[in-house]
Amino acid sequence: MTTPIRILLQTTIPTTEDDWSIFRFSLLQDYLASMQDAMGKPLFEVIARDRTSDAEGNDPVLSSLGESDFNQLWLFALDTGEGLTDQDIAGINAFHQRGRGILTTRDHQDMGCSMCGLVDIGDLHYFNTQNPDPDNSRWSRDDPHTTYISWPNYYSGANGDYQQITPVTPIHELLNNPLSPSGFIEFFPSHPHEGGIGVSPDNPHARVIALSKSLATGRDFNLVVALDHYSDAQGNRIGRVVANSSFHHFVDYNWDITKGCPTFVDEPPGDGMKSEPRALEDIKMYVLNVALWLAQ
Q1: What radius of gyration, in Å, describes the C-alpha atoms of the chain?
Q2: Rounded to whole angstroms, what are the CA distances from 271 to 31, 36, 187, 218?
Q3: Which SS3 state, helix, strand or coil, does residue 86 take?
Q4: 261-289: per-residue pLDDT in tens?
Q5: How far, in whole angstroms, is CA 277 from its chain's centroid?
Q6: With 250 labelled, which of 13, 29, 91, 222 sits at a CA distance of 20 to 30 A?
Q7: Cβ neighbours for 23, distance < 8 A, ≥ 6 positions apart
Q8: DSSP secondary structure string, 168-223?
Q9: Is residue 155 a contact partner of residue 143, using CB atoms and an 8 Å limit?
């Protein structure tokens, strides 16, 4: 019997009813848990949790992740700088150095900037006050509606709607979808203020694999970055990484707006994900592709 791939879905915030806590990622969790191999056995074992703190303030799972039996970490960085301690960062870095796969995602402005201390991963995410986009022409608010949120905040559409994505050639295997007319993933859930991601020209192991376009300014922005295995100076085979510009690509509300959202969300939602079934099919195929690719 093949052992299921163990995936940790983890936020960097404590459980809070009126926030984007892990219970709001139930559709993602259920979808991954439902996947089976050719023998009808589960492909994945999924553990979903919010941040907790021990007596020293460290998350007991993240701070010891390097010694765990998880195969993947899907990190939803929803804090504004306090979500990971030095011990948590060390645990995630050790996990990564063992060759384990990591998906990272956050959102606008400084959300998720606690990830800046993560090797490789911190460089892929651009924030307002830390590791800003090297292109300073992007140091301006893109979303014209939610004016209290600063850059980066690309407007790909309303929550509940979908965005058309542009694969970067050569098209990465993460974007394959044999059920799509084009053979590729074409749609992602949209969001009014996505975060910024990118790749330094001197990083030979990572590349931008998908773009989107702001509906407010018409400006292209990076949607997904993929980093492949490589050997570091100590001889560790570093695990694969996928960086997404927004956690809203994965949260229940953006797959199905009837699931609801925290009360602080004040933008009017759309219904594109409901009216265009291919959009939900595409993001589910992407999720499956990510889980399988990170496991290799």
Answers
A1: 18
A2: 21, 30, 14, 22
A3: helix
A4: 999 999 999 999 999 999 999 999 999 99
A5: 22
A6: 91
A7: 15
A8: PSSPPGGGB-TTSTTSB--EEE--SSB-EE---TT-TTEEEEEEEE-TTT--EEEE
A9: yes
Secondary element (H or E) of residue 252: helix 252-255
Distance of CA 110 to the CA centre of its chain: 15
Query: How confident is the model over 75-119, as pLDDT tens digits?
Result: 999 999 999 999 999 999 999 999 999 999 999 999 999 999 999
Burial class (CB in 10 A: 0-12, 13-18, 19+), 176: middle
> Half-sphere exposure of 229 toward its Cβ, with a 13 Å CA cutoff?
12
Whether residue 22 contacts residue 14, with contact meaning beta carbons closer than 8 Å, is answered with: no
* Total residue count of the chain as it appears in this document: 296
Structure tokens at 140: 């301006």
**Phi, psi at 149, each rounded to 5°:** -105, 125
The answer to whether the CB of 160 falls within 8 A of the CB of 269 is yes
Torsion over CA: 10, 84, 86, 118 (sign): positive
Taking the CA of residue 250 as centre, how many other CA atoms within 13 Å lie in the half-sphere pointing to its CB? 34
